[in-house]
Amino acid sequence: MKDYAIAAIPADGIGPEVITAGVEVLHALAQRQGDMRFSVHTFEWGSDYYKTHGVMMPEDGLEQLKAFDAIYFGAVGAPDVPDHITLWGLRLPICQGFDQYANVRPTKILPGIQSPLRKAVPGTLDWVIVRENSEGEYSGHGGRAHRGLPEEVGTEVAIFTRTGVTRIMRYAFRLAQTRPRKLLTVVTKSNAQRHGMVMWDEIAAEVAREFPDVTWDKMLVDAMTVRMTLHPESLDTIVATNLHADILSDLAGALAGSLGVAPTANIDPERRFPSMFEPIHGSAFDITGKGIANPVASFWTAAQMLEHLGEGEAAIRLMTAVERVCAEGIMTPDVGGTANTREVTQAVIRAIAEG
Ligand code: NAD
Ligand code: MN
């Protein structure tokens, strides 16, 4: 019997609603599998913790998380706490402290969910976006001078290192190699940005030589938005910088039908530290406490977690159950259904037991 130690950090807004649902589903799955169990420890960190302690997590937070096999994260963000505090106080320190440099975002149209693309059906769009998660435009370098004066200057410096670009490129090629089509698109803006972006192109070509069985091409990020919209079936695995992939994956989520179903994994491919699994969406103040948050993104990311833990069969069982429930039309209002979080969760648990 394998026993996985999971650190749950539900945090803010609908985070606790979807993580509670996800943990229930994980336990149901373990019972169905019969050969595994999950020991879940919940950390009450986030904006409420901040309001009493002045920090989003304790100083030794990362130390406490180190012993776990994986981190299952909800969302951060509260109406009365500035976003840069919640983000830089909890989520980013975990990503950076544990060097989770590969952010993996699968997107596909689930059965029963309507894409805004007129002709899209399940199968038209089946992508994995790999986002560089440790440097680039979000490295935090830059500054402001002459504040408030007409000559004020603000800089936002993107840092790309050979080590950082090579490792994310290898990760993306390796992932592309495991997918049936073995297709990778490398996204940059190397026509206008001629330093770090040209380096991306060069390193892509170098790494490509290690993966002769992967077919790859290059796209500029602006043209990429057009290709994603007009020719979604031409894409498979995609790798892009921190900023570019951030934007492209929101577009991907929308094209697949809703932010409420989009998952993401923050992976340390070298497995020195626990990786972190979360829905892409935020804390969604507008629906918090109403019981209608879509739990599908948190189920899908749980499947990513299982795959990372080497439980591929359990991951497939979970996604099969989720897709079956979507196909039956048991969905929350954000994707056109009338069910609530509880009903979707119960339906998935039932499908797991029967599947
Ligand atoms: P959001 O993702 O919270 O919500 C955007 C819209 O999508 C809202 O209308 C919301 O109701 C809907 N939505 C999101 N998830 C849903 C779900 N599971 N089911 C049904 N509907 C869903 O984005 P926002 O409104 O821009 O941000 C709200 C807060 O969340 C902000 O404080 C922001 O900083 C934070 N945020 C956090 C993360 C994160 O923790 N990773 C990500 C994005 C935003
Ligand atoms: Mn984003």
Automatic annotation (TrEMBL):
Keywords associated with the record: Manganese, Metal-binding, NAD, Oxidoreductase
Cofactor: Mg(2+); Mn(2+)
Protein name: D-malate dehydrogenase (decarboxylating)
PANTHER family per UniProt: D-MALATE DEHYDROGENASE [DECARBOXYLATING]
Record-linked SUPFAM superfamilies: Isocitrate/Isopropylmalate dehydrogenase-like (SSF53659)
Catalytic activity: (R)-malate + NAD(+) = pyruvate + CO2 + NADH
Principal EC category: oxidoreductase
Bilayer-crossing regions: none
The protein's Enzyme Commission number: 1.1.1.83
The species this protein was found in: Leclercia tamurae
InterPro entries documented for this protein: ICDH/IPMDH, IsoCit/isopropylmalate_DH_CS, IsoPropMal-DH-like_dom, TTC_DH
Gene3D superfamilies noted in UniProt: Isopropylmalate Dehydrogenase
SMART domains: Iso_dh
Occurrences of domain Isopropylmalate dehydrogenase-like (ranges): 5-348
GO molecular function, one term: tartrate dehydrogenase activity
Family of this protein: Belongs to the isocitrate and isopropylmalate dehydrogenases family.
